[in-house]
């Protein structure tokens, strides 16, 4: 990787991808079709799904990449994240829910080498919440995530809860508690919760409600916060990924937007 001065010196940003599932497949396709000007898909590291640019080991991925996008889940971030940063390669994390593990968060933040970027995924509004925190502490931060009922079924749930999700006609709240616990119980749905926690008051103070709605066709997140600066309510309703109803379709495009900003930082609204 060439020397950088506030960005990349080379005209082309080489993007490596860990994971080619519901999110990674879209990112790979869009990069190959030129969706991010000045960025090329350089390598895909996935041991299951075949791809023309597939590599079989992490070292090959890193050697071909300026920035590595992790889009393969919590386990992949634990296994490869620190090594990517320590190699001097930048890392863009999609599975932010994994950072509810304090040891992993500390290791990733403490690694020296490449830069660490966190993809905001399916929600936003963090600029106003972070500004509010500078004026005074936020007393309460909460998020209610409503998804198609089938997307929230988990083997560990009580039979009554599973039946409500599978056969019920009304929305069913399947979790109400702190963000750290929500990230552990719903790892496939935890990224927005984790992002909100990291941007505001932390995993142990953000309250999370997970709701399964049999009538829902989209994924809805409602964030509420209050403190010295005022009260806030932010609402997001995203189409679900056609390949994975537990993931919002816009998440892959949030990755592409992040890559655009990493390569050629835009004029910022400050």
Describe the structure.
The chain is of the alpha/beta class. The protein folds into two domains: 13-121 and 250-263, NAD(P)-binding Rossmann-like Domain (Rossmann fold, 3-Layer(aba) Sandwich); 126-239, Dihydrodipicolinate Reductase, domain 2 (2-Layer Sandwich), CATH 3.30.360.10. It is 33% helix and 26% strand. It is globular, with a radius of gyration of 19 Å. Mean pLDDT is 90; it is low at 1-8.
Layout: helices, strands, pairs:
Blueprint (H helix, E strand, L loop, with lengths): L12 E6 L3 H11 L6 E7 L8 E2 L2 H6 L3 E4 L3 H13 L3 E4 L8 H9 L5 E3 L7 H10 L2 E11 L10 H9 L4 E7 H7 L5 H9 L7 E7 L4 E10 L2 E10 L10 H14 L7
Parallel strand pairs: 1-2, 1-4, 2-3, 4-5, 5-6, 7-9
Antiparallel strand pairs: 7-10, 8-9, 10-11
Helix pairs in contact: 1-9, 7-8
Counted beta strands: 11
Q: Do you know the CATH architecture of the largest domain?
A: 3-Layer(aba) Sandwich
**Percent of residues in β-strands:** 25-35%
Helix/strand structural class: alpha/beta
The low-confidence runs, each spanning 5 or more residues with pLDDT under 50, are 1-8
Shape: globular
Write a brief structural summary.
With 270 residues, this protein is an alpha/beta fold. It has helices spanning 22-32, 58-63, 74-86, 102-110, 126-135, 159-167, 179-185, 191-199, 250-263; strands at 13-18, 39-45, 54-55, 67-70, 90-93, 116-118, 138-148, 172-178, 207-213, 218-227, 230-239.
């Amino acid at each position: 990787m060439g020397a950088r001065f506030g960005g990349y010196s080379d005209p082309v940003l080489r993007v490596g991808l860990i994971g080619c599932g519901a999110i990674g497949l879209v990112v790979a396709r869009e990069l190959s079709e030129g969706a991010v000007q000045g960025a090329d898909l350089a390598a895909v590291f996935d041991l299951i799904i075949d791809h023309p640019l597939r590599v079989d080991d992490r070292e090959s991925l890193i050697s071909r990449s300026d920035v590595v996008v992790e889009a393969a889940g919590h386990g992949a971030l634990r296994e490869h994240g620190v090594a990517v940063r320590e190699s001097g390669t930048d890392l863009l994390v999609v599975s932010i829910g994994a950072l509810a593990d304090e040891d992993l968060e500390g290791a990733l933040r403490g690694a020296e080498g490449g830069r660490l970027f966190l993809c905001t995924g399916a929600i936003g509004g963090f600029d106003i919440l972070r500004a509010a925190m500078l004026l005074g502490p936020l007393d309460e931060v909460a998020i209610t995530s409503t998804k198609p009922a089938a997307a929230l079924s988990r083997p560990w749930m009580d039979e009554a809860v599973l039946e409500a999700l599978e056969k019920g006609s009304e929305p069913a709240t399947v979790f109400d508690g702190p963000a750290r616990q929500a990230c552990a119980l719903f790892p496939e749905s935890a990224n927005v919760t984790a992002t909100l926690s990291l941007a505001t008051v932390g995993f142990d103070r953000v309250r999370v409600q997970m709701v399964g709605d049999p009538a829902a066709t989209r994924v809805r997140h409602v964030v509420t916060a209050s403190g010295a600066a005022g009260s806030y309510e932010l609402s997001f309703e995203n189409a679900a990924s056609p390949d994975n109803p537990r993931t919002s379709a816009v998440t892959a495009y949030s990755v592409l937007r992040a890559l655009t900003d990493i390569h050629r930082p835009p004029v910022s609204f400050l």
